[in-house]
């Protein structure tokens, strides 16, 4: 993100839900028009549980970038670097972090690749790079763990993996150099050696800081484990003392129970002897009492069975009488049925019709229908079919219309077990009812080429 977007996050305008409750390692980078890094500040920023940046965070990023120490060459010369081990403002060092210079995850390589992708679509300058001025051979600058980059073809020298010169376009014979050139070369070598020493000191300080952090974490972890062990020992000691006291109490209780058991044992023996003496007399008395109770119970059960047998006999006689009466009534009913068959029910209806009696039934759609005596059997067999015939429609069509008449709702299926159910206008005449059209709402009516024709309904 750009610095203005980062300031919006610091001002609490927007939050970062992905970083809620975390402390994020970030880098403030200054790049030139050719997307080459010129300065970098490695800082930390914390976020609360709602994803907003820490309101107490206040680091002068631009000042730290302007006053940073020397860093690696990332395409535009040595950058200005501010990190935990190399900070121009000492009290801000705790809010910074040191770069990782390992070959697998080098911080500067990751920065260079991220800037080269240009996901923010930063504007770039089309001006060509300034021409390189050929300089005398000198020691290679420190690479800060970054892989060596191939120099342009216009440069006369080639550099190895460790930064040592492999081949040079200059003559190795120094006899042609003046004293001032030798002094300049010596001063240049001293500057490069000083830069290497500074880089190594920064790397050593970074390793020391990492070792101190790891040592503090290990010490804190060991202190917690020691405290937990002490608590566990204290708990076990208390538990041991409690168990020891319980053991003593149980021993005393066991001794008291043993004495009580011996006393009860002697008492039981005396009671057993007394019980054995009276047992025989009691058993004999109980045997006599049992025999008398059994005799009395047998007599009572025998009397009850005799009463039940008498009741069953009386009930059987009553059933015979009822069956006889039912047979007589069945004979009379058969005689009445034969008489009614001879007289006939039709004669009764003919007499009613001769007296001017008419049969009228009401059916929806057909209204009040007058039923002739000749149509009476077919009407009684299927009234719905008779009403459908009067309406000049089929029985199935009339039943479908009758469901619509009783409950005018849209029958358009929405799923396998659900219909639209929207209220619609009711069609009162069965012959005007069209299945699939009259029982559909405006939304589910079938569309055809005649949909643009306007119709008027009364």
Q: How many strands appear in the DSSP assignment? A: 10
Stretches with pLDDT under 50, minimum 5 residues: 132-141, 150-175, 449-458
Give the structural class: alpha+beta
Strand content: 5-15%
The side-by-side strand order for the widest beta sheet comes to: 1-2-4-3
Report the end-to-end length measured between terminal Cα atoms: 70 Å
Average pLDDT level = 79
The largest sheet, given as strand count, sense and whether it forms a barrel, is:
4 strands, mixed
The helix count comes to 8
Helix and strand sequence: HEEHEEHEEHHEEHHHEE
What level of helicity do the residues show? 40-55%
Shape: flat
Radius of gyration: 57 Å
Notes on the structure:
- With 458 residues, the protein is α+β, with helices and mostly antiparallel strands.
- The chain has helices at residues 3-10, 61-66, 107-117, 179-343, 345-354, 376-381, 383-390, 395-406, and strands at residues 23-31, 37-46, 69-73, 78-82, 158-159, 165-167, 359-363, 367-371, 413-415, 418-419.
- The chain has a four-stranded mixed sheet. It has a two-stranded antiparallel sheet with strand order 5-6. The protein has a two-stranded antiparallel sheet with strand order 7-8.
- Residues 132-141, 150-175 and 449-458 have low confidence and may be disordered.
- A hairpin with a 5-residue loop joins strand 5 (158-159) and strand 6.
- It is built from eight helices and ten strands.
- Among the domains are: 1-142, no CATH class; 358-432, no CATH class.
